[in-house]
Design goal:
The structure holds two protein chains of two kinds. By secondary structure, chain A is of the alpha+beta class. Chain A has twelve helices and 14 strands. Chain B has two domains: 73 residues, Ubiquitin-like (UB roll) (Roll), CATH 3.10.20; 69 residues, [2Fe-2S]-binding domain (DNA polymerase, domain 1, Orthogonal Bundle). Chain B is an alpha+beta fold. The chains are: A alpha+beta, B alpha+beta. Bound molecules: flavin-adenine dinucleotide (FAD) and FE2/S2 (inorganic) cluster (2 copies).
Chain lengths: 284, 166
């Protein structure tokens, strides 16, 4: 289908974009990033904004830079760039591995890191890794910029801390240099969303798990940090038995839904099995 | 809700056109430029039949607005053949029976070209993964994989000759 008619602006800077959005008054505005979620929705006419503000011409929103103890990833950096960027692979490998499982090559060439996080689909693959690595979200609005921590960013189904008239501009990810990482995704058919996904990053020291971070995709309305697993892993030998035992805690504190792909019990089961696989792969 | 002027190069030819912002790239290509080689196979961005190259990377042209490609370079299936010679990937699909009804073929070929640019010597599994965003309703995947393999072989032979290697 063809989308309903809308006006279109393609500002060249974040400030200009914010001004365009602020100046829209009562008109319904939609921000367009890679369009890989928004354009299908417009085509199906599930949404019909008056004004689409395209971030695609804003160079300052693209790319990755070294920011001391963190790397700063521009919101408009594509999934494909997240899989390839040497800085991300070196310091936040988990993100590269997760991005590689998103959709298919064509969608990864257009879809963006920021768009995926802002969209906050519970089945999307980037939120849980970002949460696990303790990402910080830089949000720009009419009154300046603010930074929101990962645990406060994802607030509800398809809902984040990004307020009306605001834009996600950058995501700062603390460096996890030298950590092992793996994203274990479970889906039924090619190029689809996770039924359950597990993001794991671990630091092993002399055969013992020194630190562990585990995030769960689609085990609730928002991505969830598997803290019980993390605690159970620390101090354990990096062996299959110890890891599988710790993974039994994976569904603690989760609230998975039942839908056409899987019921709640099956998701709980999957979380445990996939957590075991993810951590085992991460320790290498 | 007016129109916007876009300038875009498609298959090597420069165009300048006024388009409604809601116009999808695939409709611009088919209906304004008459490039009906690029087809629409779904309403959900799943099938990949509409795949074209935008500034050298594969995209689903049903999931890009024409206004977004202002200033860009687009290659469609119609721009692959040069001087009446099929592109090696087209030739390989032809020789290996890589199509049945042919509806998915423009997208399959465009995505295969992108895949081979990234990975000139892919394994069967890498081919299947690289084509995961392209659906064949006739389910002729076996010969599609065979075609991409053949194209890779042809490509590496010519690259070897060009590089002076054995
Ligand atoms: C066939 C198909 C399969 C897919 N499979 C997967 C999958 O397996 N896993 C997965 O995770 N995703 C999948 N996706 C979704 C894809 O990853 C999208 O790229 C992503 O969800 C949205 O990113 P985008 O840049 O395309 O955003 P858009 O579609 O442009 O925007 C999405 C939403 O976020 C808002 N937004 C975007 N950027 C910002 C910003 N900087 N500030 C404020 N708001 C913003 C927009 O207003 C909009 O509401 C799939 C998509 C398709 C079409
Ligand atoms: S028509 Fe574009 S993906 Fe199906
Ligand atoms: S050949 Fe018929 S859809 Fe692929």
């Amino acid at each position: 289908m063809i989308p309903a008619a809308f006006d279109y602006e393609s500002p060249a800077s974040v400030d200009e974009a914010l001004a365009v959005i602020a100046g829209a008054g009562d008109r319904e505005v939609k921000v367009l990033a890679g369009g890989q979620s928004l354009i299908p929705v417009l085509r199906l006419r599930m949404n019909a904004p008056d004004l689409v503000v395209d971030l695609g011409r804003i160079a300052e929103l693209r790319g990755v830079r070294d920011d001391g103890d963190a790397i700063a990833i521009g919101a408009m950096t594509t999934h494909d760039d997240v899989t390839r960027e040497p800085l991300i692979r070196q310091h936040a490998l988990l993100l590269s591995l997760a991005a590689q499982t998103v959709a298919d090559p064509q969608v990864r060439h257009r879809g963006t890191f920021g768009g995926s996080l802002a969209h906050a689909d519970p089945a999307a693959d980037m939120p849980a890794p970002a949460l696990a690595l303790g990402a910080e979200f830089v949000i720009a609005g009419p009154s300046g910029r603010r930074t929101v921590g990962a645990s406060d960013f994802f607030t509800d189904l398809f809902t984040t801390a990004i307020g009306e008239g605001e834009l996600l501009v950058e995501v700062r990810v603390p460096k996890h240099t030298g950590w092992g990482a793996h994203y274990e995704k479970f889906n039924h058919v090619a190029h689809t969303w996770s039924i359950v996904g597990v993001a794991a990053a671990v630091r092993v020291e002399g055969g013992t798990i020194a630190e562990a971070k585990v995030g769960l995709t689609n085990m609730g309305l928002v991505p969830i940090r598997a803290t019980a697993v993390e605690q159970a892993l620390v101090g354990q030998p990096a062996t299959a038995d110890a890891i599988r035992a710790a993974a039994q805690n994976a569904d603690q504190g989760t609230n998975p839904m039942s839908d056409a792909s899987a019921d709640e019990d099956y998701r709980r089961h999957l979380a445990k099995v996939l957590t075991g696989r993810a951590v085992l792969a991460a320790v290498g | 809700m007016g129109t916007r002027r876009i300038s875009v190069t498609v298959d090597g030819v420069a165009y300048s056109d006024d388009v409604e912002p809601r116009t999808l790239l695939v409709h611009y290509l088919r209906e304004r430029l008459g490039k009906t080689g690029t087809v629409v196979g779904c309403d959900t961005s799943n099938c990949g039949a509409c795949t074209v190259h935008l500034d050298g990377r594969s995209v689903k042209s049903c999931s890009v607005l024409a206004v977004q490609v202002d200033g860009s370079d687009v290659t469609t299936i119609e721009g692959l053949a040069q001087n009446g010679e099929l592109h090696p990937v087209q030739q390989a699909f032809h020789e290996n029976h890589g199509l049945q009804c042919g509806y998915c073929t423009p997208g399959m070929i465009m995505q295969s070209v992108d895949l081979l640019k990234d990975n000139p010597d892919p394994s069967d599994e890498e081919i299947r993964e690289g084509l995961e965003g392209n659906l064949c309703r006739c389910t002729g995947y076996q010969n599609i994989v065979k075609s991409v393999k053949a194209a890779a072989k042809a490509g590496s032979v010519s690259a070897g000759v060009a590089g002076g290697a054995a």
